[in-house]
Amino acid sequence: MIAESVRVDIPIDESRYRRLLRSTDWQDETAKLAGVYAERVIYEGPIAGLRNGRVVELTAGDSAADVRIAIDAVPNTLTMPVLAAGRAVARALGTPASDRQSLLSRVALLLYLVEPAADADVPRPEQPAFGLAAALRLLASPIRPHVWTSLRASLEVFEPSFVLDMRDGGTSTSAAELALIVHAPGQQTNVTWADDRRARIGVDEGQRVSDEVRRRGISLMEPNAHDLQVAGALPIAPGVLATAPGQPPDRTLAAWSAHTTGAIGASALAAGRIGSRRAAALAAAAGAVFIAGPTAVAPEGV
Predict the structure, then answer these.
(1) pLDDT category, 227, cuts 50, 70, 90?
(2) What values do phi and psi take at 24, rounded to 5?
(3) Is there a contact between 252 and 241 (Cβ–Cβ < 8 Å)?
(4) 19-64, pLDDT tens digit by residue?
(5) How far apart are CA 271 and CA 178, in angstroms?
(6) What are the φ/ψ torsions at residue 102 (nearest 5 degrees)?
(7) Would strands 68-73 and 177-183 be described as parallel, antiparallel, or unpaired?
(8) pTM score over 0.85
(9) How many angstroms from the chain centroid is the CA of residue 117?
(10) Residue 61: which of 33, 103, 95 has the closest Cα?
(11) Kind of pairing, strands 177-183 and 240-243?
(12) CB 82 within 8 A of CB 181
């Protein structure tokens, strides 16, 4: 088991947020991380609303581990909170602290980050209207075929057991909240899975992660029935959502992995008025997955 003393805290306040977004500061950080991660560029060109950038694959940990966690910070439109959160995760897990080393000795890790070209402006997507349905409009992975193919091919080689998307829902809610959407095999192939008399697929995995997210002080969305219906989502546990049957199974890398490879998939979608708080919520979700994910994948073997 992962020792209870192991923590993956990834704090982001306003000051840290600004430093993570400065290209010169990030270049200094990547130099320190070179000894921890194996780095590979899997795509270069127009990406995530940028005229030019690249998708970087970072891998670390035990390459033979059964628990294989992938974090996807490559949205269809990059925003500063996703950029900062992805970098924060890479930095936190790349530190030489003994608890991080203990974790990586038991888990295989893969991170996907977007690196904008030098001096590129991170695009500001159209601000959505309020509500869960508006936030879900910003959930998708890149729709460019070359980017999607590159990400999918890389993930197939990695063979993940748990995939987390980090996504920014902008100001679609006024309060800082995180929507946790779980994807699991079978959710969309059997319309009776949401019957209250049946075990809801993905509830155990989602509850483990959501409990850990709450312990980090992050509020999880619990939309009302009308908002859920409009968004095409269903509650499967307190603070844990799933897409309703009939929704596209491959809008995100985590959803595609769940329905194609059998991995557990989850999408963390942060919303609220302040960008640094949205980044902090996404980083908290990633930290929660590294603690709760292994027991969801292999309860007896980690």
Answers:
(1) confident
(2) -65, -40
(3) no
(4) 999 988 998 888 888 888 999 999 999 999 898 999 999 999 999 9
(5) 6
(6) -65, -40
(7) unpaired
(8) yes
(9) 23
(10) 103
(11) parallel
(12) no
